[in-house]
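Form 12-C: Joint structure prediction
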Amino acid sequence: MRYLFPIIAFGLLIGVFIKGLDPERDLNALPSPFLGKDAPAFDLPKLKNPSERVSSSDYQGVVSLVNVWATWCVGCRQEHEFLKSLAQEESVPIYGINWRDRREDALEWLDVLGDPYIASGYDHDGRVGIDWGVYGAPETFLIGKDGTVLYKHLGPLDRVRWNQDFLPLIQEELENIK
Amino acid sequence: MKARLVVIALMWLPSMLFAIDAGKAFEDPVLQQRYEKIIEEVRCLKCQNQTIKDSNAFLADDLRREIRRLLSEGKTDQEIFDFLVERYGQFALYRPAMNGITLVLWVAPFIFIFVGIIVVYRVLRKRSSMPIDLEDEVAAKELAG
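Section 2 - Result
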């Protein structure tokens, strides 16, 4: 009984360490306050055609992805091939928000690497980024049919994470509304 | 002598060039003071152990610009904090509001202090209740090995 308190304290400490040292844990990933809430609206000039606009009303009623990207962002480059294969599968439309970038750089990027987006909005001064609570590109939001944020992923997206985190939610969303 | 002064003055130059906010954000000293206080309270989420006052990351830059805009629109401090929490969550604030999740942050230090005091108290009481000759005996035994 003498050692009851130290044993409990030790157990708690071990618990904290197991959680804290989990290699899967991304220290930068914070839960988005938008989860389950309406996605913020946006209305931006198109990257490719500045006289046209791309806005959150474009994807109303459709399950879609909003991907925040920039040419200076290494993770964006990493996930680009995957986004392109997603676009080819045509399961979910992908909208881009080109965040804090230079237009000519962004256009060249899409030219050279290919363009998986239905359209990208040009958020040069990061105003829309703030409305969406963006703090590190790439960030990918899964938007439901009614415009709520179903999921947010921080960092480069890949097939494994897609199958694990996005697909079940998309399936559920499609079944629920039918 | 003069040359020395010039050298000293030049040594200041780099820190001035890399200063985060060049000049004052507001003419009005009251607004300026509020602005400086708010940016000390907000975490730069890109560089999580810095306030947006100390950070040069462009996210911090954007957030400072947003806060300046909100201040000049006449928003209260609370409205500005709410604006940030709505977008970035309580984590954006260095002093998060007390609620279910953040309660442990606020209470844990006091629990640790309390536990510490109890431990010290019990150890000291045990020691002081030990008869002095017994203590000597123990010490003597230890010396004898």
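Section 3 - Comments
Chain B touches chain A through 14 residues (CB under 8 Å). Chain B has two domains: 23-97, 98-145.
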